[in-house]
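Weekend entry, working from home. Most of the wet-lab plans are on hold until the incubator is repaired, so I used the time to fold the two sequences that have been sitting in the queue since the last round of cloning. Logging both here for the record. First:
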Amino acid sequence: MSEEETVEKIAEEPGEEAKEDAPPTNNNQDKFRLISGEEILENGEAGPSTLAFLGMYVLGALVFGVHLLFNNGIDAADDASFLLKLTATLIDVTNWESLPIGFVLVMCFITWANRMLNISTSGRWVTIALLAITFLPVIISIDNVLSAIAGLFGAEAGSYDFIPIDNYNYLISGLVFLVVFWAFTYKYQRSFSYAVTTNAIIFQHAFLLSRSHRRILFDRISEVMVERTPMGTILGYATVTIMTDSGIGLVEESIGVSAGAGGAAPGTATSADDSTATKVRKSLLKKFFAFLTYQRTTRRVDHDPRHCFYKIRKWEDIKLMLNEMHRKHSQSNMLEDIKSALSNGEESEA
């Protein structure tokens, strides 16, 4: 079987499966806002692969592990390594009951490292959640101090105790954070869905109060890209990104340090009284400052789950289907069909 026949077969079979296995047409029409006569060829309601957000689950487990570490401590034997003994000593010294300085420092480092690595877990909301977990013991301690101070001035017991927790329990807090973090990650993972129809590609995202719906016509596609990370190759998923002539699929990113307002380094302003040596020094300082603050804007492929087939398992079928549907809807293919129809008409007349 030739490659072209294989592509046509893949493009046709999902349509038949969609008619048999998919929900009623009215449900799909309401969900993906289909137009009259539009049919679904591929329905990806499951969205990304189950392991697409593995980093989020690992991060939640890491935070739980830190809580367990400070809850149980480390029992370093006499023959233990120096590093293990040092870690156990630091935990004992910094793990105060009123203010666990060691826990806060460790969580601050994890939050900073996760943000600076710029990986899949480095988003804004994940960083805010990690900061909340980091400083919750401090907030509880401050609340206890305020309540104690209010008691010295004759206030009723507990009247200024805004947080009904006296001590930060590592085990219970760690379990709560783990369950909540994993539950939100699972909910976020299932909030993405897509559909390949006879007319267009539809991407949908519905998470909490956020909603987005994007519809891309096949004749707008300029390129279909597939990216497989080492982990994706092992686990069997890939990201299929669609780029259009209008710039969908690309994002601009500025690299470098901003020079600030005016872009002039302090102490480099020239005056008429400057000597030749001073002018040369200031000129070199200006050039050096311009080099340090140089910015350039690059365009890179945007792997936003809202606008691409993010880490899906049936990526080969999707790629072939998109290429085939783009070929059918492109202007060049329409011109070829018109040319073929005219040639057939001339031959029949002859």
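Second, folded right after the first finished:
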Amino acid sequence: MNLVGTEQDLTVEKSVLGAVFIDPNVLDEISFLEDRDFLSKKHQQIFNVMKWLDKKDKPVDVVTVAELYVQHNKLGDVSISYLTDLEESCPTTANVVHHANIIRSKAIRRRGATIGQQITDLSRDDFETDEDYFSAVDSLITNLRPDEQGKMRSLAESRHDYFSHLLEVAEFVPTGFKHFDVWAKGLWKGWLFVSAGRPSVGKTAMLLQRVIGVAQSGPVLLWSQEMDEDQVKDRMISNVTGISYGKIKAKNLSVKEYGIIEAAYDQLEELPIFIEDSAGITIDEIRATARRYKRKYGKIAMIAVDYLQIMKIPQKKSETRAQAVGNVTTAAKQLAREMNCCFMMLSQMTRDSENHRKPQLSHLKESSSIEQDADVVEFLWHDPEDTVSSGKVVQQFIAKGRDIGINEFRLLFRGWKQQFMELVKE
């Protein structure tokens, strides 16, 4: 940026800060402006002080701003005369929004130039995989966009959008489980759906059967962290063909069974199911991949992760494990909304759950964050008193259902072929 451009930028910044001194109420009008948008570090600091005073319902003027600098021994950073000059530099607040937009627009372009250089620098770094590189680039690009503040609208302003919404066909994603789909209308776009269960109740089998059902409606991205891609396919093939999972796993197949499997695979490969068997996946890597597939296919029906607690979850020194997990579930929920799809995530349960007959929300491992962010929480559990001769009865308990309520279903799990079917309640 040339010197003239810099002087003009600083003049506009002074005008905005001066307008705040004249009338602090203009902070509400320029709430979209961030401190990082100011070119001058001094102006960034002054703007931060102004926002802090306003948040605390304290007066915002030259005296109060200077007093804070005195309290923190920072008066050397800015003189009282400089603050006074800011106030005098702006004769009116009439153009403050226009000037604030200029500041933000200039800042976005400065950040773009900086990030361009950072992306160039990344090319010299040693990443384990290309996906790690893409994720790093995507993270930088995300930081370029301003922190958009939601804009309030009156009912009159949003009338047209609402009636257009009513005329659209409701898009629910069927799971292939008839009773659940009739009750919940399938999976809802924007959901974070958490599925938890006790050992040996078929959590992964349930997930894979849903993946097959949901893929009828659109692309499904599946991250498997404990099983490799072939093991995932073994289970899916067993589910579709009814051939024993044990026989497939042991590769003890007759010529006829091999032919059945080949025909089933031909059908499955027509479905937009994409599998990654990386261990320790991060939510940033999931986001980057999801965005790429959304651009390629126009939509995503479901993102699925097996399972939450073995993801690579960054934890800051000041954070607890539960808080770190909460950052991931919050990001997963945001991604579900951004991609307009369902994000289905398997979760562990606490050891204490074994001491109770029926699981509760508190039995989710790191439960507080998961329970808060999830739209739906499902538990799969086995009641020893509920038995049938044809397989294992698994109880499906929807313990939390935003917009749909809670419910219970009986499922028959035939583990030898990795297949669930719904039973009529007795």
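Plan for Monday: verify the second prediction. The CA atoms of residues 93 and 245 lie 73 Å apart.
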